[in-house]
Amino acid sequence: MRTQRPEFLGDEVIFLGDEGKSTWWKVMLKRTFLDPRKREKEDYYLFHSLKVPSIVLVLTKENQVVAIRIFCQAANEFILQVPGGVPRAGESFEDAAKREILEETGYRVGRLVNLGKGWFEPFNTTTPFMAFLALECEKVGDTKEDETEYLQVETYPWQKWWEMCLDGTIEDAKSVLVTARSARIQTAWA
């Protein structure tokens, strides 16, 4: 027997963010559903992003993963993860991925492979992301951090990065997902 889907009744904005400065284009929503079993309304409070980011596993010509250790305010600690960010007005997900890699790491992308959509925390946020693998990247400059970013660039051999994803050293779920989706493609290029 298939579980019945709750009926979506609507969204109400509870808190409107500050367009990126410290809320990263997120708002708080009250999302209402009709419970199919009880036939009662249920409210859920969710974070909603006004922008969808590009998240990228970056590989150099030498098969090194380029990662960032960035201060994450919600975790209140530095977290090792892959780079990413949201498109600017008129910018594609692919162009945003290339720009963010250059800004956050100083590397230029040789080739970009689309890995499809992923979700941040789908129980608490409405925010998906577009996943990419950047191949044949090379260092061409320094980082250009945004005013809310505190980061450092680190590189790891592919095999070491993969092991870090498997053993829990990489705690960032989107980084693990992008790495896992990249594994089949990366091995073909290694």
Distance between the termini: 45 Å
Low-confidence segments, given as residue ranges, are: none
Total number of helical segments? Answer: 3
- As a whole number of angstroms, the C-alpha radius of gyration is 18 Å
Q: What sort of overall outline do the alpha carbons produce when their principal axes are compared?
A: globular
Question: What is the chain-wise order of helices and strands?
Answer: EEEEEEEHEEEEHH
Strand content bin: 35-45%
Query: Which range best describes the helical content: under 10%, 10-25%, 25-40%, 40-55%, 55-70% or over 70%?
Result: 10-25%
Largest sheet: 8 strands, mixed
Q: Averaged pLDDT, please?
A: 90
* Helical/strand content category: alpha+beta
Q: Quick one: how many beta strands? A: 11
Describe this structure in words.
The strands form 2 sheets. Strands 4, 5, 6, 7, 8, 9, 10 and 11 form an 8-stranded mixed beta sheet that branches. The chain is 21% helix and 42% strand. The radius of gyration is 18 Å and the shape is globular. By secondary structure, the chain is an alpha+beta fold.
Labels describing this entry:
single chain; three-stranded antiparallel β-sheet; 3 helices; about 190 residues; globular; eight-stranded mixed β-sheet; about 40% strand; alpha+beta
